[in-house]
Structures are given as C-alpha cells and as structure tokens.
Amino acid sequence: MVYPPIRLAWRPTRESWELPVLFEDAEVLVLDKPASLLTVPDKEDPERPDLMGLLHEAVRAGASWARARGLEFVANVHRLDGDTTGALLLAKSKSALAALTDQLGAEKPSREYAALVQGVPAEPAFSVEAPIAPHPVRPGVMRVDGRRGKKAKTGFEVLERFAGYALLRCRPLTDRKHQIRVHLRQAGFPLAGDPCYGGRPLLLSRLKPGYRFKRDTDERPLLGRVALHGSALSFRHPGTGEQVRIEAPWPKDFRVALKYLQRYASVGGVAPCAAE
What we know:
- By secondary structure, the chain is of the alpha+beta class.
- The chain folds into two domains: about 1-105, Alpha-Beta Plaits (2-Layer Sandwich), CATH 3.30.70; about 105-275, 2-Layer Sandwich (Pseudouridine synthase).
- It has five helices and 14 strands.
- It has helices at about 50-60, 65-70, 95-105, 180-185, 250-265, and strands at about 5-10, 15-20, 20-25, 30-35, 75, 85-90, 110-120, 125-130, 130-135, 140-145, 155-160, 165-170, 230-235, 245.
- Strands 3, 4, 5, 6, 7, 8, 11, 12, 13 and 14 form a ten-stranded mixed beta sheet that branches.
- A hairpin with an 8-residue loop joins strand 5 and strand 6 (about 85-90).
- The longest helix is centred in the last third of the chain and has 13 residues, at about 250-265.
- The radius of gyration is 19 Å and the shape is globular.
- The relative contact order is 0.15.
C-alpha cells in the first residue's frame, strides 16, 4: 500500500523534507527518517531542527497532511540519531504510545539496523552486553561504564565481509542513547564515518587500487555520515494485537557505499540478505 508522504519545512534556513510513510492507520505511524534530521531536540544545539518539533508545529498550524489525517496527537516511541536513517515508530494516541513503549522495554529483538563497520568479525554472530552512561567530560557522548551505566545489550550478525570492512545486522535488546555505536566500538568494530566513536570516513581511495586524487580538492567520503540505517521494526499492534513488521529500504548513499565495497573490497560472494 502507498501512503501519502509528510512534508515538513524549517523556516529559519528554508530547509524542507518529504518523509515517506512506511505504514499508517488510526493509531500508528511509521516514517522513513532521512539523514541529518534529529528525532528530538539536541540540548547541545537547540537551534538545530528536529523531526518531532517540526511535526508538532505542523499539526498546530493545521498543515494539509495533518488535516487530511485528522491528526491531533503524535509522539515518538523511540528515536534515531541525527545521521541515522530508517524506520521510526510514532504513536497517534496516548494509549497507543503507552502500549508501544512497554513493548520497547521488553528486551525482545523488535528493531533491526544495517551497519557498515571497520574491521571484520571472526564469528558469524556475536553480542555485546555492557552498561552505557554519558561521558563525564564530553557532552552528548556516551561510553561503557560499569559503575554508572544502565544495562544495555545488542546482538550482531555478519551479513557480508569485505577487505577491512563488514556489513552487519544489529538488533538492540535495550534502548540506550548511541547504544549500537558504543557497543560496536566496545567490540572493536566502529561504524564507518563515526569519528565520535572511532570510525574513519569510508573513502574510495582506501578501496580502489591506483585511485587518482583530484588536484587541490579534498576527497569526499562515499558515505558522508554515520553508516547506520534502521532497516526494520516489529511490534504488536496496540489496537488489534496483531504482529506487524515494517521494513525501510536502504537509502541511496548506503547502497552506493555498499556497491563500491562489493566492487573493490570483496572477499567472496554476496550474502543473500545483503542486497536489500
């Protein structure tokens, strides 16, 4: 089924976004969040636009898409980091929000992410269970902290291996800020393009033999952001009780980065699930 998209605008900078709707009914809304758009406000940068703020402002202003849906309430059940793309689950009523939030804290694999990481795990699957807390001197950054951290666990599965990189499926069983990023650093496989947690930019010059640099220009990364995408989420519908699974297609920049890895850093065949 094709759902009408949601259009948002940020007047101060004249930025605009058209967000695809992956699923919608009277109680639930699932959006395909783009990169470089926060889910909620950033305490360190309050002037930066965020998705929930834009949604609430549009609903109050009576935007055409909100009127057509009869939308008066919308709240995020979880969040995605600013650079992370993919499926974001929203509730359209307070009762739906309560029911969906309870499911999120049940330590069940309800969300899946695709990640491009530095390094190649030896095992086909592994997990990291390490408590996470805010960094004491770096605002907005998290770290593994055995004394002050909150319980956190993430499962990882290798989908495809490359020379020096890997494509992983990530399943967080808890919902901590930057959980996947912190746990991947802890495991020794930081996300590509995530300097905050030790990840270098994914550059074609590191993959392609004989790469020629353009004179007087800096090389642009193949993926100009953290290489993480919310590829799927599952939940029990708060109204019907039925199990629902929603998948978000990989964005163009993620697919392009994967294409170059497969072309210049391949060490074997493509895994069946790696071409989503």
